Amino acid sequence: MNNYTNRRPPVPGGPAIPGYGGDHGNGGAGGAKNLRWRFGCHLRRLDLATFNARTLRTDEKILELEEEIDKLRWSIIGLSEVRREGEDTVILESGNLFYHREGDHLSQGGVGFIVHKSLVNNVVQIESVSTRVAYLILRITKRYSLKVIQVYAPTSAHSDEEVEEMYEDISKAIHSSKTHYTVLMGDFNAKLGTRESGELKLGKFGVGQRNRRGQQLADFMEKEGLFMMNSFFQKRPHRKWTWSSPDGSTKNEIDFIMTTRRQLFSDVSVIARVKTGSDHRMVRGTLNLNVKLERSRLMKSTLRPPSCSDPKSRKLSARVTQPLSVPTRLQCSGRYE
């Protein structure tokens, strides 16, 4: 990233981000407060979005995106087609965290995240599995954490082998660094269409006709136990499509939000107000995490008679993730001054 100062050097073989937390006066959210995230509350609300930005190659494009999302309610935005060089994590002058991983070619591809400044200190890890798959882990409480996986799938011009490799990378992201909650989202370049007979992972509000890549996605969802949350909320037709052809004659739903816990989401909607020159529209899902309810479920599960066939009953462990510290507050130069 040519126009950023005070960048941390990359750590070979390590996480792309060393972590956030510790001293509130040195980096992080810069003193920003989010009352919904006090540990004393039982309810946590998060607004997760995914957006194919087409390009965030220049700092001006990042600033443009920040200006657009400033109008919205959001917590974390997963990004596709960032088209930036290398892999880096910075704190923007706004206080928001920006992470990116380059694509196969500078002119296309790449994934990333923007994390709201009020949550920066809750980010404990960001990793890229490949140029098409990255994930971050957000600490919700001392016991519970959330993994958000962002994907940019190969287009129809790419081979089936590349698509299969991507799904293998997604599986790696799902099963590494275990967390209590997992959300998968991104541009899958696949049309799922309406629910077919016997399918339980899709709701009744899918749209369009399923194609071959869509069937691959449906099979993957079944394998990993993922629910397609776009299809569980009824919206008008013009609020369902996420991609439009240049002439506007073709519109498809190819950007999705999925999770292993269907009850987490209270809404998934297409956001049409973000205007950055992309041919995609943002998809946003609202999560309402009831920590007290999860605690109750955990207590009930531990009181059940143990079963030798259930590996989970042999050992109960809670991974406590701790945020690391950022040595300096990173800022943008040039247009951000």
Fold and architecture overview:
Mean pLDDT is 81; it is low at 1-40, 311-322 and 324-337. The protein has one domain (17-24, 40-303): 4-Layer Sandwich (Deoxyribonuclease I, Chain A), CATH 3.60.10.10. The chain has 337 residues and is of the alpha+beta class. 17% of the residues lie in helices and 26% in strands. The protein has helices at residues 59-69, 160-175, 212-224, 291-303, 311-314; strands spanning 4-5, 43-52, 76-80, 87-91, 97-101, 111-115, 123-128, 133-139, 145-152, 181-187, 227-228, 243-244, 251-252, 255-259, 265-271, 282-290, 331-332. A hairpin with a 6-residue loop joins β12 and β13. The protein has a 7-stranded mixed sheet with strand order 4-5-6-3-2-16-15. The chain is built from 5 helices and 17 strands. This is (apollo) hypothetical protein. Residues 49-280 form the Endonuclease/exonuclease/phosphatase domain. GO terms for molecular function: catalytic activity. InterPro entries: Endo/exonuclease/phosphatase, Swc5/CFDP1/2.
